[in-house]
Amino acid sequence: MRIHASAEKWRVMFGPGSTVPGEDFGWFLIPGPCGIDLKVIISSGDAESGVDWEHVSVSTKKRCPNWQEMCFVKELFWDAEDAVMQLHPPRSQWINNHPYCLHMWRPTKAEIPMPPLVAV
């Protein structure tokens, strides 16, 4: 995961959950491309599962983020050629801490299989 330099100016550096520039975790309050602020939380790695994942969650106060907003955030935290994914896990594994939050994931030790180009 790389953090685009322009994203650092929106990093929350004071109060609960604050982090310092350059860390690959933390949260950001970003003015979105559709005129709505986006709360973005990033994290990298998970020692418990044995799989390293990069993770970004994106939420707004009144609705789920749309495609344009998710693409905007993806470009702030990953390179244009990195494949990332949104998952629909089994309902029994859902944890809904925020009704208007979507997630993007990228494994760091495996490639994401890609569908045929004609299907994308």
Structural class estimated from helices and strands: alpha+beta
Would you count the extended β strands for me? Answer: 4
Q: Indicate the CATH topology.
A: Streptococcus thermophilus LMG 18311 protein like
Percent of residues in beta strands? Answer: 15-25%
How would you describe the overall organization of this protein?
The protein is α+β, with helices and mostly antiparallel strands and 120 residues long. It has one domain: Streptococcus thermophilus LMG 18311 protein like, CATH 3.40.1720. The protein has two helices and four strands, in the order αβββαβ. A four-stranded antiparallel β-sheet has the order 1-2-3-4, covered by helices on one side. β1 and β2 form a beta hairpin. The longest helix has 11 residues. The protein is globular and about 45 Å long. It starts with a helix and ends in a 13-residue tail after the last strand. The model has no long low-confidence stretch (mean pLDDT 89).
SSE map:
Elements: H1 5-8, E1 26-31, E2 37-44, E3 53-59, H2 67-77, E4 101-107
Antiparallel strand pairs: 1-2, 2-3, 3-4
In short, what is this structure?
The chain has helices spanning 5-8, 67-77, and strands spanning 26-31, 37-44, 53-59, 101-107. It is α+β, with helices and mostly antiparallel strands and 120 residues long. It has a single domain (5-119), classed as 3-Layer(aba) Sandwich (Streptococcus thermophilus LMG 18311 protein like), CATH 3.40.1720.
